[in-house]
Every structure is written in structure tokens, then in C-alpha cells.
Amino acid sequence: MEIIHNNSAGIDIGSRNIYISPGYSEVKVFGTFTGDFRAAASYLIEKGTQTIAMEATGSYWVILYDILVEHGFDVWLVDGRQTRQVPGRKTDVKDCQWIQQLHSYGLLNRCFVAQGELKEVRGYQRLREDHLRSASMHINHMQKAMIEMNIRLPEVLDQIQGASGISIIHAILEGERDPHRLLSLCHGSILKKKSAEILAALEGFYTERGLFALRQAYQAYQFYQMQIRECDAALNDILCKINQDKDHREAGPRKPVRHHKPQIDELGRHMLDLFGGRDATVLPGITDYSWLQIYSETGTDLERWPSEKHFTSWLGLSPGQNHSGKANKRPKKKGRPNAGQIFRLLAQSLLKSKKISFGAFGRRLKGRKGPMIAIKAVARKIAVQYWRLMVKGQEFVDQGVANYEAVMIKQKEKYLKKLALELNLQVIDPK
Predict the structure, then answer these.
(1) Which end of the chain is more exposed for a tag (fewer CB within 10 A), N or C?
(2) Is the CB of residue 227 less than 8 Å from the CB of residue 245?
(3) pTM assigned to the model
(4) Domain topology for 8-104
(5) Of residues 291 and 431, which shows the higher confidence score?
């Protein structure tokens, strides 16, 4: 094979040592302290290295990547699964030599690495999502503690972490036991519909152990809510910093964010400023918050993916191929990019929609091939439209279920006429 990348090097990264192969039999070992990373960069400069390939191993690669880029190297971060195709004895020394050899022949694909302000946005957003998951765990703890005291609030309230539920839990921890006084803390709309049910549910059997568990879970939940608000403040600051020199646009009416809405001033305007006025919320299922999530993972420059197929493949949403002779197996892919998961969540919500064509398409596919394939297919459709909107500026307007069903009826009529022709039958229009 022809060498494509001359003066290349391969690096295998571990928690204690990094192994560097500068293109020949010699392998150099360095530690993982910052001084060792700078010494490794100086060593590669001495060897005349221009391009480097390294595996994305946990979080160990982050600082080394930044230091190497700072020294002017063309650094390729690659998926470790690309370098594990040949069986044999495995050592760290052989790994770095194998990475260097694959990179020199151009057999590795570069991962997308966020840089600059996008890296900050991604860090704050991912940290916010971690806090949301931790907070949901403590919501379950509060529910368990109440059920153990036979306070059946989770059965009558859709969300105990709502304003009414949190007010009742706070009052219980402050010593209130009267169901009528606890009921008075609920929102007016709940009082009109569920007063009798909530009154019966609040007649609990209080125990010291249950109250202790409820207090612990409530305090932990409030702590993570504070952490989430701090992440929102950090996101608001960095978005203001990014857009300070841009022309501000009027956002107009925005889609409501039903769950986990960030406390960011004029989030819709910030997103429109970032993308030069192109509004992703015209796509079904995408709100300003889900748009922020997608932006934190993909950035604003979607032209780095040459086509919509490259984009959906990177997201892990393209249909896989695993043919061998006559067998057509379904490959099991390991690992899913965060951006792909965001589109999957959007697709999952659209499957329940009765007014959007993507939902009708997903339900039709779900009946034939199951929910997982349907979610993936709908997610791919959303991702394709997102790429087209951001790269080509094509406006997308959902035509609704009626248009989709009309197309399906035409396809069925065409198939029926073809089948009738094969069976020597005649299709008669009742009109």
C-alpha cells in the first residue's frame, strides 16, 4: 500500500504511561503528568513528526490532544475500534506501532473534536445532563420513601417534583401532618380535579426511618437543582460571549419546552444568532433546548460532513450492512454518539404524534419491524432534514399525516393494479 501520511506517529494512551511510535521500530515511553506530555511533544518535534494518530481512550486523551495541537501537530483522534481488526498478541508497544502504521496508510478516520467556545458549551451541557440524571434518581428515592410510609402521592400526581408535590414534601418534612392543610398547598387546577384522591393519598403512616429517607432524598434533589441552575448560568454567559458581536435577531413565538427547560435568557434568539437566522425549530420535535443539545454536539459548521449520508452515518443512524454469502445478518453496533441519542429521543416523542407525518411513518414501520428500527428510521429522517436546513438552507414544512396517508394510498392502489394484472383480474372504481 502507498504511504499517505509521511512523518506520522502513533500514540497509545494509558492511565500511567503513553507509548509513542514515531514511524520506525523505536518506541518511547512517557508518563502522564503535564510535564511528561510537554516532553513528549518536544520529542516528536525532534523526530520531525507532522501528523499523529491517537485513540480516544476515556478522558485520558483530552489534555495530551490540546498540548499536541498547541505545538502545531496535525492530531487525529480515532475510534479505538478501528485499530482492533487484526488478532494476535496485544501489548501497548505493539498498539502504538499498529496505530502509526494504519495512520501512515490512511486507514483511520478522524473523530470530530470540539474546539474553543463550542468545547465549553458541550462541557456545561453534558454536565447539566448528568445532574438531571442524578436528580431523577433522587426523585425515585423520594417516591420510595413516601410509599414505605403509605403516602400514595406518586399514584395521584403525575410528577411529585412539580410545584405542588415539592410544596407538600417540604411541609411534611417541616412537621405538617394534617391532610387538609397539605392539600391546600396544591395548585388550583389539581384541587379542582383530584382533591378527594390527594386527600386520601396524604393519610400516611409516618415513621422516623421513612422521614429520614425522605429528607435525605429531598435535600439531594434540591442540591442537584442548584447545580443545574449554575450550569444554566454558565451556558447563558458563554452564549452571550459567542453572540456579542453578531447581529441580534427577533426570535418571535417559540415552541414550549415541556421538560427540563434551562433558565437561559432569550435562548431562541441566541440559537438564531449562532446559525445566522436558520431556525431548526421549524422541524418536527425540535425545541430551542433540543436544538441547544444538538449544537453542543455538532457545532454550527455541518459542512464538515460532505453529505447527509456522512452525517447520519456519523450519528450512528444509517442502516448497517453485514452480508456474508446468502446470509444477511443484522450487525450489533457498540456505542452510540451523544448526538445520535438526541435525535433518537426526538423520534421517540414523534411516534406518539397524530398530526406529524414522521409520526405516521414511524408507527407504520413499528408495526412491521418493531420499535427500535422505527425510532432509528425516524431519527434519521429528522437528522437528514436538519443537515439540509443548516447546510443548504432548505426550508422544511411538515405536510401532516393527511399528505403522508394520501401518498400511501396511491402506492397501495399502484400495487393493487399490478397484482390484478398478474392475476388477470380487473379493478373497478366504485365511482
Answers:
(1) C
(2) no
(3) 0.86
(4) Nucleotidyltransferase; domain 5 (3.30.420)
(5) 291
